[in-house]
Amino acid sequence: MTMIPLFSNRYRTAWMGVITLIGCLCLWQCSGKTSEKKEDKILAKVYDRNLYLSELEGIVPEQTSAADSILLVSAYVHRWIREQLMMYEAERNIPKDLDIDKLVRNYRASLVRYNFEEKLIAEKLDSTVSNDELLAYYESNKDQFQLESTILKCLILKIPTEAPQNEINKLWYSRNPSDEIRLNAYAKQWASLALLDKNKWYTLQELAALLPKGTLTTDNVSSRKDGTVSDGDSRYYYRVMEVVQGKTTAPFDYAREQALKIIQHRRKHELLENWKQELYQKELRRENIKILQ
Length: 293
Prior knowledge:
It is a single chain. By secondary structure, the chain is of the alpha+beta class. It has three domains: 11-92, no CATH class; 108-145 and 254-286, no CATH class; 147-244, Chitinase A, domain 3 (Roll). The protein has helices at residues 9-31, 66-92, 100-124, 131-140, 165-173, 179-190, 204-208, 252-285; strands at 42-46, 49-52, 151-160, 193-195, 201-203, 226-230, 234-244. Strands 3, 4, 5, 6 and 7 form a five-stranded antiparallel sheet that branches. Helix 1 crosses helix 2 (66-92).
């Protein structure tokens, strides 16, 4: 059976070239701190584009083995070659009606403007919104806070069937505020799912996905209050505390965060528009603006 050499002449030449590059790179890095003038060696060419030795400076960390250094340099060089080939073909196929320079100018302008506006907002915007202002906006704009689906406040515990049942039954149905601490401790020890925040809203779809199928549905959610259900491996305790049907106005505590974002966004817009108008008037007075006809 004919054996194929591990390194053909072509690959042996390529590897020797990479090893030579490693040596040149080491010499470059060692001499870089002392030599102000040195000839920058070309490592690879793609048409009129050159990869210089200096561009590889720093890609091989200190204490890297010779084998790993060869792999790093070889990967860098071949990646550079492929990128330049791609760029060459892309530039050859630019549509005649595509103004790259204009696109670059516009993109740069948008970046500069965005950065300046963000700085201006950070320095000048009052982002504090009082609860009274939020409530006033909510009351005046209820049409903006219509629910797409039913939401509810609901407590849920999911515990394994082997967990102590007498204790959870006592704690779950207790109305003694001090038992809430014990219930949370029990949940921390036994529950694989615990939703015990009385003030948090959930969509019906979110909660229905956490409970056995059919436990909470659009048809029964308004009539369900307290309940338990089992799926064989776990027992679920749930308590529906408040329900708001879809296609109605969201309650204030649910809409509060959305109202806050709307008010802050409006303030940002007003701040920028007022600042631009003040700038315009100032530069107009200084006669830095001229409209030529």
